[in-house]
Fold:
Amino acid sequence: MLEFERDGAELFAPVVGAEVLARLRDEFDNMNLKAGGRSFDLSPIVLDLLSSSGGLGQVAGGLSGGEGRPVRVLAFDKTPETNWHLGWHQDRVIAVKLRKPVSWGGTWTEKAGVPHVEAPVDVLRSMFSLRLHVDDCPADNGALKIVPGSWSRGRLSDAEVRAVAETGCPVTCAAGAGEVLAMKALAIHGSDAALRPSHRRVLHVDYCTCTLPEGLQWALEFNPPNT
Structure:
């Protein structure tokens, strides 16, 4: 069984019921994820999930001592038409409001009009993600794989990431609908293409417990509802 602080990942029991999952599936369908993934709008149901009393907010609060704030919300769906393979990697990129020079020389990109930059290691050590499975995600449906304990090695080069994955003991994180996979940003992870692709809808939320350095600001403006 994976443990968050030891392994860098942990699977949590369902945090939402069938009604909320059905509403989320409708929202995913309305997004028409032709490329498999994109930023998710902060609709009322998502805001409720992220609030301190919501299903994701409670998990995040428990993992971070109440210090974690959501900084990016994404939607992913593997289908027969968008059935991708994701190589071993670490999550190193953050979404910010404005591009500006930074002392650590992070590489800049732009996704859907939003500036993204590779974050310094101190920020990455303060980040984790929660992945709410909107559908059942067994091992043969492209479930995420992680290398336990790999987060403790810090930020690695691509070659180092591959070497750790090849010598480690990856774990496939199969999950049921409503379950939440928590994962540290520096945990090495990937996924295979689904052997029996159907929907594999995931609401992915990045959290951070620190402020950004050098005047950078998170792109996500999160105003939680009263709880």
The mean pLDDT is 90. The longest strand covers residues 69-77. Helices lie at 4-7, 18-31, 44-50, 55-64, 121-125, 158-167. The two ends are 32 Å apart (CA to CA).
